[in-house]
Specification:
With 484 residues, the chain is α/β, with parallel strands linked by helices. Helices cover 42% and strands 14% of the residues. α3 packs across α4.
Length: 484
Amino acid sequence: MEQGEDMDHLVGALGLWSTGRGPLYLLLARRIRELIDEGRLRPGALLPPERALAAALAVGRTTVVGAYGTLRAEGRIVRRQGSGTRVAEAALVPGDVAETDNPIFLHLLQPPAGVILLSCAAPDGPPPELRAAYARMELPARGLGYHPAGLDGLRAAVAARYAARGVPTDPGQILVTTGGQQALSLLTRLLVGPGDRVLVEAPTYPGTLDLLREAGAVLRPVAVGPDGVDPEAAIRTLSEERPALACLGSVYQNPTGSVLPPLVGRRIAAAAARAGVPLIDDEVPAELSFSGEAPPTVAGYVDDGAVISVGSLSKVVWGGLRIGWVRAPAAMVTRLARLKAVHDLGTDVPAQLVATDLLSGLDALLARRRRELRHGHDHLRELLASRLPEWDCPPVQGGQTVWVRLPYGDGVAFAQLALRHGVGVLPGVCLDAAGGSRPYLRLHFVTSDAELTEAVDRLAAAWAAYDGRGALEGTGAALGGITV
């Protein structure tokens, strides 16, 4: 692993280290101490030089010097001439377990007080339709309640929505999962082994990258532009390398919001079919079209099951309704159901009953969500144009995120500084297996006008303090429990 990748992983693992009260050097020391005590920084691990880590965290060098000094005094790190600063030897260290450094998940695991999160895009509360559906829900009179493949009624309802989009689907081709993330996890476990090559977009949804890295996959990134993934590079990778799996987001791609043109999608799907490569199309944002007309699905371009679709209700309804699905050949669905049974025996039955109810009358809720998203998109772009005109923020036609390019500097370092100004953003490098996208940020617009306005005000203040290499020490003023 290259030194830059090591730095990015450490910064990711540090997470929301600067939230809380007190001097920054003590907050940094506390988080590094936790990583050491948890065994995520192993004995003998080399820590970055003080200046390099300071630049990556957008702090002054004295912050890192103070943190390292505190940890050396505790005996947790040692500094030796010629070998740098390393984690001290320990008598007992937990075993190697893959854990996420994904900022999205860390923001959920460690919710920071006083920080506006533009990093995790999802509705910020359950809609009235969901409450009403739970009020109507009736549990079955009998039955064990274990349904690894999902309730028959929900599988039929999901299949019917595909059929309405021009993709004939049998209920036996649908596996119900505990959210879209579990759908991707099960597919990864089934299709990818250590050392297998996997085609991924660069950038892409970071949850996919987490799963593939945990599986020991060798990632083959292909660039994404305004019209989706580069078709020539994707087709060349499929035909020449024949990876074990290919992962795309053809409609309102996360994070760029791009849409793959139908003819390009057809070519890529056909190339995957010829090469015998399973192609996952992450369709979670597919119905979030501002115009109300969802683009065609790649699954409709081929008839032999080469395309596996992943969907979810988390973006349309609410993230707390953990209902997702896989559309795949029936034989694969059977294998996935057996794998799912090992992990949870089946998705929550009340949630499945509610989801079935919602799908029967989803159009009104979906229309409102689309209007809200279009308004949020336009409001965010207007704010950025007014307060941060040097930032490049191309419009999108659907989804929940925009892909913003900074005029200079590094998204990782700026995200650290933005966090200390009270707003959490997702740096582009966290989403790019090719190591690119460093000047980019992913922002979502799934919140109120007032919160978006405040978030952009804080981003503008952070940008005014940013010099492209790092930032000067803060003044020590407090903002919602955050030392700035």
